[in-house]
Amino acid sequence: MRKSTSILSLVLLVSLGLFGCQQRTDRVDSGGVMLSISDFDQLPVVVDASSTVLTNAGLVQIGQITVQNVVKNASADSSALMNVEIQSYEVTFTRADKGTRVPPPLVEYIFGTAPVNGNFVLDNGPVMRLDQFNTLPLRDLLDYGYDRETSSQVVRLTVGIRFFGRTLSGKAVESAPAYFTIDVVP
Question: Residue 1: pLDDT band by 50, 70, 90 thresholds?
Fold first, then answer.
């Protein structure tokens, strides 16, 4: 009987410790944070498909992207548990012209930290790779010099970028997408 009481006491003590830690984390991180893309520098405006594929292996980059880690409730306490470990970003494409075909999304896995109320800066982040140029409609520009769907020599794309991460306390965080437009020419 004494042995079972000791085991039960130990289980209760461990359970209280685990739940106490979780409550502490939730209390400190209760306001939460959000990621916000606050600045782009050196955006590609026109991309020459042939030149990019031949001389740069299809790599198109943004010079610099700044992502802010903003506390949702500015009057709440903040702590290092609200720092966000940036894990990846996703680039998506929609047509900004009359076409419907789009390149596949690009997902880049990265590592960095956006401190609470601070910034994470990504330098030379890829927004297009060879995969995007090897699919329609960009493949048409390389093979035929125009988009066979629209008969245009320009494919206008709206590019969307969003970042993903986790706070140190384990909560998933993502930014709203930020958009810009590029023209891809043969």
Answer: low
